[in-house]
Amino acid sequence: MMLHHLLGRMLTAFVTLIGVAIVIFCLLRIVPGDPVAMMISPSATPADIAALRARYGLDLGLFQQFVIWFKAVTAGDFGTSISLRRDVVELIGERLPATLELAFTALVFGVLAGGTIAVIATLLRRTPLEAVFEFLNGLFLAVPDFVWALALVLVLGVAFPVLPLSGRLDPASAPAFVTPFYLLESLVRLDFATFSDLVAHMVMPVLALGLPLAAIVARILKESLLEAMGQDYVLLARLKGMSPLRLVLQEALRNAVGPTLTLTGVQFTFMIGGTVIIERIFAYPGLGNMAIDAVINRDLPLIQGIVLIFGALFILINIATDALAVLLDPRQAHG
């Protein structure tokens, strides 16, 4: 049943990805603006313009362009960037790891912070401090990630300049990396100086992305914990003399984590999309920052490649979330 469920999800994901490819391909050619005009000199002749359009296949019909592009994509060829004159796959391969490290770090922070807040709020239920937690959690829910980013820049970057404002690593001390996963590689190599520098550059982006997620996790997990605390098996454990903290962590948490896991997976996809703005604010050299440059330059091959990669990431995360939810509760495979 588990395998059947996953195969069904993968088939749906494949169809969805094809739909994303069709939509983004058509939209980019409907919106105003000529990518050739962004890269050619004002003194270019009509023959030069025609030759450049032919080079990128822009002189063909829309359907013919899509067929040629889709065949190339299925073979792993996303084309050549118009603005950067480089292979799109190489560009994405250089920038995607930075975005993944940022997003996964923010996810870990959001889950740990939100889970801790939920447990503390559950222990403090029916006390005056519970209202304080609810107020702060509502405040964090109401503030979007880019507002947190701007506030962190003003406080920790300008008023009290304790953290770097931009970039991924100090260029003056950047060592030679073997892989594009700088954070993981520096930790494996026990290069704690580089690791600390990477973490310092990530603190503000991670906080901006992770604080709204922490608020969502805290609210959903707390509601699930309170519901679990009213179950018979928890009441029986309380009668046996188990402490409130053990009741929450040992008895209630394992049965309350299911809904929170599903919601976290959905929110993680939104978080990856949110890296576009956050990376721009902090000049973080990730895929989202490059996506904005690609849109400004009307770089069709690069935009198409980035959107497809984002779409594939969203789909994979949803499939992984569904698989974990089914493992925790096999009954969901029948739903």
Please give a structural write-up:
- With 335 residues, the protein is mainly alpha-helical.
- It has a single domain (88-334), classed as MetI-like fold, CATH 1.10.3720.10.
- 74% of the residues lie in helices and 0% in strands.
- It has 12 helices and no strands.
- The chain has helices spanning 2-30, 46-55, 62-74, 88-123, 128-142, 145-159, 182-188, 192-229, 232-239, 244-281, 287-296, 300-328.
- Helix 5 (128-142) crosses helix 8, helix 7 packs across helix 8 and helix 8 (192-229) crosses helix 10 (244-281).
- The chain starts with a helix and ends in a 7-residue tail after the last helix.
- 30% of the residues are buried.
The low-confidence parts are none
**What would you report as the Rg, rounded to the nearest angstrom?**
24 Å
Helix content: over 70%
Distance between the termini: 11 Å
CATH superfamily: MetI-like
Mean pLDDT, nearest integer? 84
The SS-based structural class is: mainly alpha
Strand content: under 5%
CATH topology: MetI-like fold
Number of structural domains: 1
Q: Provide the CATH architecture.
A: Orthogonal Bundle
Return the string of H and E elements. HHHHHHHHHHHH
CATH class: Mainly Alpha
Topology, number of strands:
0
Shape: globular
Q: Outline the biggest β-sheet.
A: none
With helices defined by DSSP (H or I, 4 residues minimum), what is the helix count? Answer: 12
Membrane topology: Multi-pass membrane protein
Protein name: ABC transporter permease
Pfam families: BPD_transp_1, BPD_transp_1_N
Subcellular location: Cell membrane
